[in-house]
């Protein structure tokens, strides 16, 4: 399909006008293409050569409005660092509508009703980070929003310094957040809360559409999806950095990429967001925070779903839904095909060990994937081999109870433990080059993001330890 034939739906606009604000994008000056993602184009049946169509840059710049589109910003609220903020919403994002079930958004396309004194813009730096990482997460099998392309411009914006403005086109099967529910709950607009829930069921949980108990069942599935998502984050070593309830997806997707990081050396208490001094959103706190966020969602849904039933589900989240989701993923990472009771303990010991041996998280699991009893390759990558040795003895014991062959285990592990992830130092290199007008590394990282489990000899240098000076740095929220 060419852009001219693309027809968008705007079902969100069938909701009450309080849910959104109709608003047109404000274009950037002298826009140019930074990158186009043919993988995402396929999802919306867009021709893979659409990036050569001059209308493509215009689409991202908001000057080519596809047929059927009526641009709008979505209204929501949310708990930010534990405090309720009744008025958030898409302050710099404008929705164009949906095609093939993908809701298209322009992030950085100017002010909206919800901009709250901010400029409605996004910088090249944060746009490249979101563009690449959302694709990276998808290819790691972690539910995420996607991104179709990115443009830069001559428009300047003020952050810590003067930076270039960009727009990234994001795509998601849903943009509804926990905070969207909170908005109507705290305003006591319960009929609108119900309207929103019905909308979400049709958009995201259609299998419950005709079920009399659909509200509660939707809540249960949100809890389960969130548990799975956070377990995947923990297992891959992803620190989101701003887990406010407005950044929690009702579909259990990774959304709103800000000061995120993949762990370099494994640090349980790592805080990627350097304004988060207390570490509320540290890597190790993410499971607890997701429970807290789900509790806030249950409160927002309490006028229309039994509190007792929701509380039971939340209790289950803590007791076994999250722990089981996490242990299952970790079993895959460790190549354990059988489920044994003590596996949770083995994994707990591993986390403590990783914390104490100073090792690159990704490199550790990739190296372990080839483990054949020879410990040297593992000793070579840790600072404290004696501590690791203790855990390896437990692991040896556990492996001896497995029935499948070593080569089968290694093969499975190599498909569960990526060789390549997008570390912040890699993203930063691509950004620095892009700010100087060279976008080749953005393309390289887009390719690497799509091949996390492959051996890519030409990119071997990205598979090793992070250079010391770039390890586990904190990032600014400014974007
Ligand atoms: P975040 O936690 O980064 O997802 O954003 C929190 C809120 O601030 C959301 O409502 C955003 O739309 C809004 N916001 C962030 N940056 C800007 C900006 N430059 N202009 C307008 N709104 C913004
Ligand atoms: Mg957000």
UniProtKB/TrEMBL annotation:
Signal peptide range in chain numbering: none
Annotated ATP binding sites: 89, 91-92, 107, 119-120, 170, 177, 256
GO molecular function: AMPylase activity; ATP binding; magnesium ion binding; manganese ion binding
Cofactor(s) this protein requires: Mg(2+); Mn(2+)
Active site: 246
Keywords: ATP-binding, Magnesium, Manganese, Metal-binding, Nucleotide-binding, Nucleotidyltransferase, Transferase
Annotated catalysed reactions: L-tyrosyl-[protein] + ATP = O-(5'-adenylyl)-L-tyrosyl-[protein] + diphosphate; L-threonyl-[protein] + ATP = 3-O-(5'-adenylyl)-L-threonyl-[protein] + diphosphate; L-seryl-[protein] + UTP = O-(5'-uridylyl)-L-seryl-[protein] + diphosphate; L-tyrosyl-[protein] + UTP = O-(5'-uridylyl)-L-tyrosyl-[protein] + diphosphate
Documented EC number(s): 2.7.7.-, 2.7.7.108
Family matches, as Pfam families: SelO
Binding site for Mg(2+): 247, 256
Enzyme class: transferase
Physiological role: Nucleotidyltransferase involved in the post-translational modification of proteins. It can catalyze the addition of adenosine monophosphate (AMP) or uridine monophosphate (UMP) to a protein, resulting in modifications known as AMPylation and UMPylation.
Protein family: Belongs to the SELO family.
HAMAP family assigned to the protein according to its UniProt record, in alphabetical order: SelO
PANTHER family per UniProt: PROTEIN ADENYLYLTRANSFERASE SELO, MITOCHONDRIAL
UniProt-recorded name of the protein: Protein nucleotidyltransferase YdiU
Organism of derivation: Candidatus Sulfurimonas marisnigri
């Amino acid at each position: 399909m060419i852009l001219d034939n693309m027809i968008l739906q705007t079902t969100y606009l069938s909701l009450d006008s309080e849910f959104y604000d109709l608003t047109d994008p404000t274009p950037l000056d002298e826009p140019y293409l930074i990158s186009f993602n043919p993988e995402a184009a396929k999802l919306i049946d867009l021709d893979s050569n659409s990036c050569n169509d001059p209308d493509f840059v215009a689409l991202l710049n908001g000057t080519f409005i596809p047929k059927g589109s009526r641009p709008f910003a979505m209204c929501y609220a949310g708990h930010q660092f534990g405090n309720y903020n009744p008025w958030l919403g898409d302050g710099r994002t404008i929705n164009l509508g949906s095609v093939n079930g993908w809701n298209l958004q322009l992030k950085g396309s100017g002010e909206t009703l919800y901009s709250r004194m901010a400029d409605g813009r996004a910088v090249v730096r944060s746009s490249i980070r979101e563009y690449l990482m959302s694709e990276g997460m998808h290819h790691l099998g972690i539910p995420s929003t996607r991104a179709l392309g990115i443009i830069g411009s001559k428009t300047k914006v003020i952050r810590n310094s003067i930076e270039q403005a960009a727009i990234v086109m994001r795509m998601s099967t849903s943009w509804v957040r926990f905070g969207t529910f909170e908005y109507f709950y705290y305003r006591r607009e319960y009929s609108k809360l119900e309207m929103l829930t019905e909308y979400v069921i049709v958009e995201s949980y259609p299998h419950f559409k005709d079920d009399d108990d659909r509200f509660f069942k939707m809540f249960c599935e949100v809890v389960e999806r969130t548990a799975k998502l956070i377990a995947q984050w923990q297992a891959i070593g992803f620190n989101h950095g701003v887990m406010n309830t407005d950044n929690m997806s009702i579909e259990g997707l990774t959304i709103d990429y800000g000061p995120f990081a993949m762990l370099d050396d494994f640090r349980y208490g790592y805080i990627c967001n350097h304004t988060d001094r207390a570490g509320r959103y540290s890597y190790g706190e993410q499971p607890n925070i997701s429970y807290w966020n789900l509790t806030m969602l249950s409160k927002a849904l309490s006028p229309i779903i039994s509190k007792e039933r929701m509380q039971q589900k939340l209790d289950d989240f803590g007791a076994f839904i999250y722990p089981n989701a996490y242990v299952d993923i970790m079993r895959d990472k460790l190549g354990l095909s059988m489920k044994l009771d003590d596996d949770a303990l083995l994994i707990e010991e591993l986390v403590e060990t990783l914390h104490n041996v100073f090792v690159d998280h990704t490199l550790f699991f990739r190296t372990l994937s080839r483990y054949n009893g020879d410990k040297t390759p593992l000793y070579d990558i840790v600072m404290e081999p004696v501590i690791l040795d203790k855990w390896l003895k437990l692991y040896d014991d556990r492996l001896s109870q497995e029935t499948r062959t070593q080569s089968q285990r290694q093969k499975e592990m190599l498909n569960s433990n990526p060789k390549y992830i997008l570390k912040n130092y890699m993203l930063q290199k691509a950004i620095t080059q892009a700010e100087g007008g060279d976008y080749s590394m953005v393309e390289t990282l887009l390719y690497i993001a799509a091949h996390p489990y492959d051996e890519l000899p030409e990119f071997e240098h990205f598979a090793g330890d992070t250079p010391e000076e770039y390890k586990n740095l904190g990032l600014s929220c400014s974007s």
